[in-house]
């Protein structure tokens, strides 16, 4: 396994919204290159870049038209290779976003698959044997091809599903994962990985990794598929990293992934922390962390206590962190995010508290997500330094508030969120117990109660983390011999008489 993951801190870049260097209103590869030193100075040593391949952008690049070609609006393949090289010059790493489950209807593979005469792409996608039948639990697109049948789609109607087979077949047209069509699809996706790793990327974050093999209730088919991929990578590129968007680490780690994302949908209770009516990290102190902790512990044990569960500050698919928690609450939230196991993922702009931009029309399939995809706010100049284009040409409308946060202003303010995150990252990197593989034990996480307290440890040290987002003093029972306060925000906890008393709106890391 790539050792660099042990202390990796990822920065997620949405390329179209990061920095535009040619004045067309859309971010580009050169813009990312120009800001690599900024990312490194913040403390992040790895990048996850959202899809950057050729696409009609009906779903912001998650509808690929050519897996082997960079999207011209971002630059050329040579530009992308130069980005990889510049990342590596700084002793950083970069993962591309791989979307193996579906393509765009504009992909040449799909156009060939639509033809009535058999060809090498006939079984590249999942086709039924009838144009007329209705499907249960699957979307489909019909009446668009000369061949008989409907094509299964993932998500939007313009995203036909690639064929990796069905674990449990219930219809004659469904293929087995070991049939020639599904095997050829997997082989081609391995070719895609081979191409980009050869160009210099360090691996992939895999979109919806647990959904490739269909009718796979227990994920056995998908685990088997990814084990094949891992065997291929181990043989040719043993250092190549795979991070899954799966949400079930016990399954994804079995499949050969190094880490798994904690998803904001499903049973994780991640939204209880930041994105609900009463988030745990609100100063109102009406939230509940207990269900999240129970689910986390369950996943932690299932994954053999490896702790490789990534908790993002946010991403392109969910509301900005600053939509529901604000000001000093954000600093307390990052004390949590940067002290948990697994690699932290910071969504671009979250380090300065960028806001969700309300009431935007959908852009490139964003719909309600569009407000979380607005252009990065660098400085006080035109378009906050994002682009020299007229503002009406920007990819997404920017936050136009006069008090919008910027990198320039936050870097100049020693008490800013930016500097707090930078400080937290430095502390994490100085203590191996706080990094990806350090163990975790929750010591206080009661229903409807504050604070949250947990121990991080390895064979070198043990650190008590106490997080109290509520605006009131709280306490819990515990007898701890504290050697040193490694980090405090909002005041220091008091340890006396078998009780720990914690100031309101505070976070602390205590070396035991």
UniProtKB/TrEMBL annotation:
SMART domains found in the cross-reference section: Aamy
InterPro entries, A to Z: GH, GH13_cat_dom, Glyco_hydro_b, O16G_dom_2
Residue span, Glycosyl hydrolase family 13 catalytic domain: 12-428
Pfam assignment, any one: Alpha-amylase
GO MF entry, a single one: alpha-amylase activity
GO biological process: oligosaccharide catabolic process
Family: Belongs to the glycosyl hydrolase 13 family.
Protein name: Alpha-glucosidase C-terminal domain-containing protein
The organism's taxonomic lineage, starting at the top: Bacteria, Bacillati, Bacillota, Clostridia, Lachnospirales
């Amino acid at each position: 396994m790539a050792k660099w993951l042990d202390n990796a801190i990822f920065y997620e870049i949405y390329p179209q919204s990061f920095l535009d260097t040619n004045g067309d209103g859309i971010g580009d590869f050169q813009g990312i290159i120009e800001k690599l030193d900024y990312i490194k100075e913040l403390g992040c040593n790895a990048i996850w870049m959202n899809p950057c391949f050729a696409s009609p952008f009906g779903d912001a690049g998650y509808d690929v038209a050519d897996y082997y070609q960079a999207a011209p609006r971002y630059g050329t393949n040579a530009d992308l290779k130069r980005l990889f090289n510049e990342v590596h010059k700084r002793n950083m790493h970069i993962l591309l976003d791989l979307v193996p489950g579906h393509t765009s209807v504009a992909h040449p593979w799909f156009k060939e698959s639509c033809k009535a005469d058999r060809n090498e792409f006939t079984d590249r996608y999942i086709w039924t044997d009838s144009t007329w039948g209705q499907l249960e639990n699957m979307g489909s697109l019909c009446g668009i091809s000369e061949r008989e049948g409907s094509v299964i789609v993932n998500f939007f109607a313009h995203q036909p599903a690639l064929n990796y087979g069905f674990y449990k077949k219930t219809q004659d047209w469904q293929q087995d994962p070991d049939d020639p069509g599904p095997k050829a699809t997997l082989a081609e996706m391995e070719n895609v990985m081979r191409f980009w790793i050869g160009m210099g990327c360090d691996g992939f974050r895999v979109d919806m990794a647990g959904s490739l093999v269909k009718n796979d209730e227990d994920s056995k088919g998908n685990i088997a598929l990814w084990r094949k991929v891992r065997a291929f990578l181990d043989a040719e590129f043993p250092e190549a990293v795979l991070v899954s968007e799966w949400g079930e680490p016990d399954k994804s780690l079995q499949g050969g992934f190094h880490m798994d994302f904690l998803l904001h949908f499903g049973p994780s209770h991640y939204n209880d922390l930041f994105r609900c009516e009463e988030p745990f990290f609100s100063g109102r102190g009406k939230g509940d962390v207990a269900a999240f902790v129970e689910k986390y512990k369950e996943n932690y044990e299932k994954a053999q206590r490896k702790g490789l569960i990534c908790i993002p500050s946010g991403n392109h698919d969910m509301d900005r962190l600053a939509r529901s928690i604000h000001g000093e609450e954000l600093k307390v939230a990052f004390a949590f995010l940067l002290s948990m196991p697994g690699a932290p993922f910071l969504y671009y702009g979250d380090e300065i508290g960028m806001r969700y931009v309300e009431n935007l029309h959908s852009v490139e399939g964003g719909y309600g997500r569009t407000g979380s995809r607005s252009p990065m706010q660098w400085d006080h100049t035109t378009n906050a330094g994002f682009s020299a284009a007229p503002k009406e040409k920007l990819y997404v409308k920017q936050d136009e508030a006069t008090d919008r946060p910027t990198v320039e202003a936050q870097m100049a303010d020693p008490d800013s969120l930016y500097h707090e995150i930078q400080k937290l990252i430095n502390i994490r990197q100085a203590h191996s117990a706080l990094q990806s593989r350090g163990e975790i034990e929750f010591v206080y996480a009661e229903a409807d109660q504050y604070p949250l307290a947990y121990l991080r440890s390895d064979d070198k040290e043990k650190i008590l983390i106490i997080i109290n987002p509520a605006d009131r003093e709280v306490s819990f029972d515990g007898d701890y011999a504290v050697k040193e306060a490694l980090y405090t925000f909002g005041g220091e906890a008091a340890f006396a008489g078998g009780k720990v008393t914690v100031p309101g709106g505070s976070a602390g890391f205590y070396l035991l």
